[in-house]
Design goal:
It is built from two helices and no strands. By secondary structure, it is mainly alpha-helical. The protein is elongated, with a radius of gyration of 16 Å.
Length: 52
């Protein structure tokens, strides 16, 4: 699954808002960072912010 499946459903007119949200969460977010709170972590100790 992923963006191509979401786009196919969208173009066919078969994607409602609730369906999009469910598919986006499962097919894009969960596929990227994993499921549940243990899918990723951020310790906050090793990042930087650059202002321009």
């Amino acid at each position: 699954m992923g963006w191509s499946d979401i786009e196919t459903l969208w173009m066919a007119g078969d994607l409602r808002d609730d369906d999009f949200e469910d598919r986006f969460i499962e097919d894009v977010i969960v596929a990227d960072i994993g499921e549940g709170p243990d899918g990723w972590e951020f310790s906050g100790s090793s990042y930087s912010v650059e202002l321009r």
